[in-house]
Design goal:
The chain is of the alpha+beta class. The chain has a domain of 131 residues: Sandwich (Jelly Rolls). It has a 5-stranded antiparallel sheet. A 5-stranded antiparallel sheet has the order 10-9-12-7-14, with no helix packed on it. The radius of gyration is 32 Å and the shape is elongated. It starts with 24 loop residues before the first helix and ends in a 9-residue tail after the last strand. Keywords: Dioxygenase, Oxidoreductase. It holds the Pfam family Cupin_2.
Length: 250
């Protein structure tokens, strides 16, 4: 009589790294009862340097643009006399760039208590002074909380270079455009020199050495426009001054 063999299927063996994710209903109820209240939960987050996005969604992802800058007009006929006076009052060696910044009044970030200035003053935006004499005047406890800008994304200013002067070479992270308003001069970008004539538009790329000069008999004036606020807000804007006043050019 032939033998009968019984086939027995081995029971499946879970791998060693297997984790049982099944949850018993009673355990789930116990965990839910252990949860804090919503208010206690939210109050505990700041100590962990956490914040719920769902409560700040409108601020983080607004429905519409919300610029700070408001429309404003600077009349050239009113500004030109002040810029011309700066050309006479502020010597070349006292101003790396003789510029009147176009500061939007809706974006003014000045924090000052007392200002008494007899003549024109040109300051770097990150300068902090306390009772400092400047050109016969006195600047007292004057601070910039942040850089003054023209719009939320653009810094602009009117620059004047007198005959025989050089705006020394430097480079910066922000891009720059220059709209030539009057006079004749030149600019050199990474050693390539080009003329500046009324009506020209010159673009200076990021982190390129550049300097400007005036070999004519009359002042040259242009409008600077830089996307500096974008780099300032990101805390990555800075500049480097070249060792000589002119970058070698051809």
């Amino acid at each position: 009589m032939p033998s009968v063999q019984t086939l027995v299927q081995p029971s499946p063996v879970a791998p060693k790294d297997h984790v049982d994710h099944s949850v018993d209903a009673t355990d789930a109820e116990s965990d839910a009862s252990a949860l804090p209240s919503v208010s206690d939960y939210l109050e505990a987050l700041p100590a962990k340097h956490l914040e719920p996005l769902w409560s700040r969604m409108d601020a983080m992802v607004p429905r519409t643009p919300n610029p700070v800058a408001k429309p404003y007009i600077w009349k050239y006929k009113n500004t030109l006399p002040l810029l011309s006076a700066a050309g006479q009052l502020v010597p070349e060696e006292e101003a790396e760039r003789r510029v009147l910044m176009l500061v939007n009044p809706s974006m003014s970030r000045f924090n000052h208590t007392t200002i008494r200035v007899v003549h024109f003053v040109f300051l770097n935006y990150d300068m902090v002074c306390s009772t400092t004499p400047i050109f016969g005047g006195m600047l007292t406890r004057f601070q910039y909380a942040d850089a003054p800008h023209t719009t939320d994304t653009i810094y602009a200013g009117l620059q004047l270079v007198n005959p025989g002067e050089t705006a020394p070479a430097h480079r910066h992270t922000a891009y720059a455009c220059r709209f030539i308003i009057s006079g004749e001069g030149f600019t050199a970008v990474e050693g390539k020199r080009m003329p500046l004539i009324r009506g020209d538009v010159v673009v200076t790329p990021s982190w390129h050495w550049h300097d400007h000069g005036n070999e004519s008999k009359n002042p040259v004036i242009w409008l600077d426009a830089l996307n500096l606020p974008l780099f300032t807000y990101a805390r990555v804007h800075f500049a480097e001054t070249y060792a000589a006043s002119r970058y070698p050019s051809t």
